Amino acid sequence: MYRLPLAIAVLIALAACSSTKRQWQKEGVSAFDTANVESECKFQTGLAKIKGDQAEELVRHCMQAKGFRLN
User: Fold this and answer.
1) Distances from the Cα of 65 to the Cαs of 10, 14, 19, in angstroms?
2) Where are the alpha helices (DSSP H) in the chain?
3) CB 19 within 8 A of CB 58
């Protein structure tokens, strides 16, 4: 009798804790253009043959240098 409400409460709590992917944003820039800029930053990082955490950090710096921020 109490299992269904408890199960529902647990599911709601788990859904509230789920992580959402952070996205790059810049005022006045479409999602399509943002994806293109991010791809360009990733491409430049790939040309330098940098992998892993360093690559992610360089992409982040590249995007921030172009005026984007993570939300």
Assistant:
1) 42, 36, 26
2) 3-17, 31-47, 52-65
3) no
pTM for the complete prediction? 0.68
The tens digit of pLDDT for each residue in 48-64 reads 888 899 999 999 999 99
Residue 45 CB neighbour total at 10 angstroms:
19
Q: Which two tokens stand for residue 28?
A: 């006045």
What whole-number distance in Å separates Cα of residue 59 and Cα of residue 34? 13
Length of the chain: 71
Contact 34, 68 (CB under 8 A): yes
Residue with token string 């999602």: 31
- When pLDDT is cut at 50, 70 and 90, the band that residue 17 belongs to is low
Q: How many whole angstroms separate alpha carbon 6 and alpha carbon 71?
A: 33
